[in-house]
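FORM 12-B: Structure-to-Sequence Request
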């Protein structure tokens, strides 16, 4: 299996090269050349079992061939329950029971286990990431303990919440956190400059782990496929999916799983007030915008990075986009708690609202599965006042909070980043 660039100006490469590169050299995104035939009964099973069926054929002819089954077993070893809080309401697929409490754990754990097998002592990999949100924590946690593939996480001093800072700074070797005396844009600019510096890039094997990585995208098919098979077995119908969407990584994985023949019905993308995808859906024009801040801040994206894949792929079945305001997010969190005693994070709430917007006829045709992307504890500053009670951390996040932290302060200068990388 080879991967080609959406822009068609770079050579096709096997999976290990696509993983290592992140984006293709022509600036496009990698997509598989054709879809493999999945010759299985599509039996109900755990995420790891389903992943073992779906993923290996994408890695044939690559340096990772023969190792994917083991990576799936290691990476997907936590529960992924389907719950139904209200009898007539949608089912909810809880994607937040991994070690850092958000669905980013799936992609990060698969990617870093893959990186550690691709890299070696003479050819190391260092993921350089500027992030404040769920990705940074998942990346740090996933890289911890690796032999050859580490991570360096940059974040802006004084501009992220205490919990966010803790979950970036609490991981052991080969993970390091750098607190930059600058704002978030300056952190990202610094990372970009490091990638452009060929010496630096080569010496440390710099790469990124953002949501365009095919090594995050492919594994995310596994839980949608797992849940869809389970729902089909339980109800006799293919479920529709409602997916909280920002950079379109999670949703594109579901679209890919459906194209592979998994029993998935219509796919609804729930977005917040950032309207780029909604405008594209309603009038066919894609126009990137500056992002606006919302309560569902992991979805505050004005130029969804995986859109180029969606445009190149042309899904074979319906995809719909619903836009949800902060006001509606707040009402949904309150109502879900009052009516069903269920506590949703703001991202999950966008999908709960989107589910109510599906036309009555379409909604009645089949069961629906709403993706719950983060544990509400991670967004408790928003959620607690709405439900009028405290949220206690799940064991996974309590474990994170107990870990000691270390961080190095640097100015926003390339020389300082270089010194930190070398130390
Ligand atoms: C990253 C994230 C999203 C958005 O996922 P995309 O793959 O970027 O569309 C939604 N919810 C949470 C909690 C996230 O961390």
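FORM 12-B RESPONSE
SEQUENCE OUT:
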């Amino acid at each position: 299996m080879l991967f080609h660039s959406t822009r068609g100006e770079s050579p096709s490469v096997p999976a290990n090269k696509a993983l290592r590169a992140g984006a293709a050299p022509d600036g496009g995104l990698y997509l598989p050349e054709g879809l493999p035939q999945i010759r299985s009964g599509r039996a109900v099973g755990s995420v790891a079992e389903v992943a073992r069926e779906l993923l290996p054929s994408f890695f044939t002819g690559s340096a990772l061939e023969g190792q994917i089954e083991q990576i799936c077993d290691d990476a997907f070893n936590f529960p992924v329950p389907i719950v139904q809080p209200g009898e007539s309401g949608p089912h909810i697929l809880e994607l937040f029971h991994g070690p850092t409490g958000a669905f980013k754990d799936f992609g990060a754990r698969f990617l870093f286990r893959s990186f550690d097998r691709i890299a070696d002592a003479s050819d190391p990999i260092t993921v350089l990431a500027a992030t404040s949100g769920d990705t940074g924590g998942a990346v740090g946690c996933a890289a911890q303990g690796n032999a050859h593939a580490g991570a360096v996480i940059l974040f802006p001093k004084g501009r992220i919440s205490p919990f966010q800072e803790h979950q970036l700074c609490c991981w052991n070797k080969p993970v390091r956190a750098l607190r930059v005396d600058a704002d978030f844009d300056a952190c990202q600019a610094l990372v970009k400059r490091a990638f452009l510096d060929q010496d630096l890039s080569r010496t440390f094997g710099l790469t990124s782990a953002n949501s365009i990585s095919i090594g995050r995208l492919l594994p995310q098919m596994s839980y949608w496929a797992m849940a869809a098979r389970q729902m089909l077995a339980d109800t006799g119908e293919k479920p529709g999916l409602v997916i909280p969407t920002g950079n379109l990584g999670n949703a594109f994985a579901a679209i890919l799983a459906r194209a592979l023949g998994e029993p998935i019905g219509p796919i609804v993308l729930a977005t917040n007030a950032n309207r780029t995808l909604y405008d594209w859906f309603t009038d066919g024009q894609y126009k990137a915008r500056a992002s606006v801040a919302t309560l569902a801040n992991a979805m505050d994206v004005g130029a969804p990075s995986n859109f180029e894949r969606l445009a190149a792929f042309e899904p074979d079945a319906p995809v719909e986009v619903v836009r949800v305001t902060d006001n509606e997010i707040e009402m949904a969190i309150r109502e879900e708690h009052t009516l069903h005693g269920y506590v949703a994070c703001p991202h999950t709430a966008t999908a709960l609202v989107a589910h109510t917007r599906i036309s009555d006829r379409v909604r009645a045709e089949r069961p629906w599965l709403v993706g719950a992307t983060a544990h509400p504890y991670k967004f408790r500053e928003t959620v607690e006042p709405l439900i009028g009670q405290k949220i206690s951390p799940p064991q996974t996040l309590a474990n994170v909070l107990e870990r000691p932290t270390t961080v190095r302060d640097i100015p926003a200068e390339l020389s300082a980043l270089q010194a930190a990388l070398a130390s």
